[in-house]
Design a protein that fits this description.
Radius of gyration: 18 Å
Largest sheet: 8 strands, mixed
Structural class: alpha+beta
Helix content: 25-40%
Keywords: ATP-binding, Isoprene biosynthesis, Kinase, Nucleotide-binding, Transferase
Protein name: 4-diphosphocytidyl-2-C-methyl-D-erythritol kinase
GO molecular function, one term: 4-(cytidine 5'-diphospho)-2-C-methyl-D-erythritol kinase activity
Strand content: 25-35%
Shape: globular
Number of strands: 12
EC number: 2.7.1.148
Order of helices and strands: EEEHEHHHEEEHHHEHHEEHEE
Distance between the termini: 9 Å
Pathway: Isoprenoid biosynthesis; isopentenyl diphosphate biosynthesis via DXP pathway; isopentenyl diphosphate from 1-deoxy-D-xylulose 5-phosphate: step 3/6
Bound molecules: adenosine-5'-triphosphate
């Protein structure tokens, strides 16, 4: 079985508050993109992972792929194994949900390959216990995600959007960015999510460019100033708007059409090796023929 685990971008990220348990209550618009990691999963006696690419990704027990597979095996009470080979393309610590996408692909893939017939409710609960973005990555497409990632509302998308994603610097740790957010003297403004929802439904990139925004940007930029520079550069190369995704450190440039995105990507790749030309897609995990 060959799968693509798709990255996600945040068109809008609002922080609503901090709960007593320390988690932040969020309201986000997330969408899957074609950029993704490839996974090949074969039945085997042992459970193993072979990793290609992703220099800062743990290849052993710390990898979310193995943690997800083990957790699924325990929950289902089976003793089967699998040989998993993964080619990592999604940049790490980028706010693109790479690890979450890989875990989502493994949960769906092994549920089928091991004939577990586990339903959505059980799979979602298991996914949530591993990471808050994994339930979104299992379904993907365009969704409004609320709470700490458990409330998923499917939304209509009027057209595919053309993007250039750049990671101009080292990755960022999500907890570190939230700590920096909590320490800000002034609460950043939240984006207008309703306006972004309408722009996405209409397939209108210019309206989406006006509405998109990320309340974590003022927390991430002082740690990685290259984020602000990459956003400016993407707009200089023709992006209608460029904004950080998730907690960074990747920046997403939104373009009016495929040609404009392609032109900008050719400029960006000369500056930053981690530059990706991609577009939105309607699924979180896809099966390769
Ligand atoms: P999010 O937006 O969900 O916070 P991210 O895109 O910022 O995620 P990831 O690329 O998922 O961050 O990586 C976060 C950390 O998880 C990394 O430090 C990495 O070492 C670890 N990790 C474990 N498994 C994986 C995996 N399969 N792919 C990427 N990172 C993984």
């Amino acid at each position: 079985m060959r799968l693509i685990a798709h990255a996600k971008v945040n068109w809008a990220l609002s922080v609503l508050g901090r709960r007593d348990d320390g988690y932040h209550e969020l309201d986000m618009l997330m969408q899957s993109v074609e950029l993704g990691d490839s996974l090949e999963i074969r039945l085997d006696e042992e459970l193993t992972l072979t990793l290609h690419g992703g220099p800062r990704v743990p290849s052993g027990d710390g990898n979310l792929v193995l943690r997800a597979a083990r957790r699924l095996r325990e929950a289902a009470g089976v003793a089967q194994g699998a040989r998993i080979t993964m080619k990592k393309r999604i940049p790490v610590g980028a706010g693109l949900g790479g690890g979450s996408a890989d875990a989502a692909a493994v949960l769906l893939g092994l549920n089928a390959l091991w004939n577990l017939h586990m339903g959505w409710q059980d799979l979602r609960a298991l996914a949530r216990s591993l990471g808050s973005d994994i339930p979104f990555c299992m379904v993907g497409g365009l969704r409004r995600v609320r709470g700490t990632g458990e409330q998923l509302e499917a939304l209509p998308c009027g057209a595919p959007f053309h993007l250039v994603i750049v990671q101009p610097c080292a990755g960022l740790s999500t907890p570190k960015v939230f700590a920096a957010y909590d320490a800000l003297a002034v609460r950043p403004r939240n984006p207008d999510i309703e306006a972004a929802v309408a722009a996405l439904a209409q397939g209108d990139p210019a309206a989406l460019a006006r509405a998109m925004g990320n309340a974590l940007t003022p927390a991430s930029v002082p740690i990685r100033p290259q984020i602000a520079m990459a956003a400016q550069t993407l707009e200089h190369f023709g992006a209608l708007r460029a904004e950080m995704t998730g907690s960074g450190s990747a920046v997403v440039g939104l373009f009016a059409n495929a040609q404009d995105a392609d032109f900008a990507w050719r400029q960006c790749i000369a500056l930053w090796p981690k530059s990706y030309l991609t577009r939105t897609t309607d699924r979180g995990v896809s099966l390769c023929p």
